[in-house]
């Protein structure tokens, strides 16, 4: 119920993860249809970039203002930090405070004077400003780092690289918020360079017990995980897409014209293949470099046909091999019989 600096930076990381989830699924999927020239009606979804900007903007972000309060001379308290937030973020649509100059929330008794509230992607969260400044400073004295670096234990020494005399920096140590922000930026960079697969876990109840399904809890998770937007995009779009070359290579045995080799462009081969299989035109679309299949059952049908065709080909190969083996054995026995008969006649 009482959220402080720790929960704030955790929720900030969750916002960044949600942002990259949006970019890599909803945004990227719709942009791919446009790139491939597929007819598409854009589906609106909420992009939480505005919330991330509220927290991490280098000029007016909450973390930037917190660092500024920690570094400026004079009397610095959590109250002065909140006053600064009220001055800069008062008109932001995702920021709420009782001390806000716009006075929108003066009658909101659920929001104490020493708190501010952020409307996150997953819902509204109220933060107590008490301790924000001290926790953000998180100063580790330089002589303590140097002492730990001199330890004989390799792990302890590795945990305090800033204690190395060769790397002594007289500048003020970075704040906890700036360090966390840099770590999140590194994480986002690593994720963007990969091809991540998302697994969304739904908690059915708070008791972690079997056979209990809390509908309100599940609906809340479905909303804040962004599953509704994702399902809308997926249902309106295409369930499967693949480049023409691997698609033709995988299913070419289903058509006599493309099997065993297709002499021509891969797209033309896929068109001949789908026409031969009589797949309805509304079930697929040809992009500039990929084939798009709308319904999963069409893909399952292709896989079933391929499986049956592979069994037929295996049976054909087995039949030809057995025929070759029997014929070879017959010819060998025939030659042996001729040799035996000729020697027998000579002897007789």
- Shape estimate: elongated
Structural class of the helices, strands and pairings?
mainly alpha
Average pLDDT reading: 83
Number of contiguous helices:
13
How many angstroms separate the termini? 112 Å
Question: In total, how many beta strands?
Answer: 6
What CATH architecture label of the largest domain applies? Answer: Up-down Bundle
Q: How many domains in all?
A: 3
Q: Identify the quaternary structure here.
A: single chain
SSE pattern, N- to C-terminal: HHHHEEEHHHHHHEHHEEH
Share of β-strand residues:
5-15%
Pfam family, one: Myosin_head
Region (Actin-binding): 184-206
Keywords: Actin-binding, ATP-binding, Calmodulin-binding, Motor protein, Myosin, Nucleotide-binding, Repeat
Family: Belongs to the TRAFAC class myosin-kinesin ATPase superfamily. Myosin family.
Describe the structure.
The protein is mainly alpha-helical and 348 residues long. The protein folds into three domains: 5-138 and 174-193, Methane Monooxygenase Hydroxylase, Chain G, domain 1 (Up-down Bundle); 139-170, no CATH class; 242-347, Alpha-Beta Plaits (2-Layer Sandwich), CATH 3.30.70.1590. It contains 13 helices and six strands. It has helices spanning 5-35, 49-56, 62-71, 78-89, 132-137, 142-149, 154-159, 176-192, 215-224, 227-236, 244-251, 266-277, 296-347; strands at 95-97, 115-120, 123-128, 240-243, 284-286, 290-293. A three-stranded antiparallel beta sheet has the order 1-2-3, covered by helices on one side. Strands 4-6-5 form a three-stranded antiparallel beta sheet. Helix 3 packs across helix 4 (78-89). The protein starts with a helix and ends with a helix. The mean pLDDT is 83.
């Amino acid at each position: 119920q009482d959220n402080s600096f720790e929960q704030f930076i955790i929720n900030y990381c969750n916002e960044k993860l949600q942002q990259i989830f949006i970019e890599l699924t909803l945004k990227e999927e719709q942009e791919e249809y446009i790139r491939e020239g597929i007819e598409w009606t854009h589906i609106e979804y909420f992009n939480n970039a505005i919330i991330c900007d509220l927290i991490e903007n280098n000029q007016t972000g909450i973390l930037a203002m917190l660092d500024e309060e920690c570094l400026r001379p004079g009397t610095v308290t959590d109250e002065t930090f909140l006053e600064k937030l009220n001055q800069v973020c008062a008109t932001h649509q995702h920021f709420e405070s009782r001390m806000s100059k716009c006075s929108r929330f003066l009658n909101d008794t659920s929001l104490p004077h020493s708190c501010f509230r952020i409307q996150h992607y997953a819902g509204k969260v109220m933060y107590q400003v008490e301790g924000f400044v001290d926790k953000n400073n998180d100063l580790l004295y330089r002589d303590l780092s140097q002492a730990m670096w001199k330890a004989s234990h390799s792990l302890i020494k590795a945990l305090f690289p800033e204690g190395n005399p060769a790397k002594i920096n007289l500048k003020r140590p970075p704040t906890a918020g700036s360090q966390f922000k840099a770590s999140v930026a590194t994480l986002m960079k690593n994720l963007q360079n990969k091809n991540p697969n998302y697994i969304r876990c739904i908690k059915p109840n708070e008791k972690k017990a079997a056979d209990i399904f809390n509908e309100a809890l599940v609906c809340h998770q479905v909303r804040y995980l962004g599953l509704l937007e994702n399902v809308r995009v997926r249902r309106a779009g295409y369930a499967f897409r693949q480049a023409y070359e691997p698609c033709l290579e995988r299913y070419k045995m289903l058509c006599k014209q493309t099997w065993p080799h297709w002499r021509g462009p891969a797209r033309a081969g896929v068109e001949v293949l789908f026409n031969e299989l009589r797949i309805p035109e509304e079930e697929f679309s040809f992009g500039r470099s990929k084939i798009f299949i709308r319904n999963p059952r069409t893909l399952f049908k292709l896989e079933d046909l391929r499986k049956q065709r592979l069994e037929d080909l295996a049976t054909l190969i087995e039949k030809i091999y057995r025929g070759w083996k029997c014929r070879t054995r017959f010819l060998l026995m025939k030659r042996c019989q001729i040799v035996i008969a000729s020697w027998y006649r000579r002897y007789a």
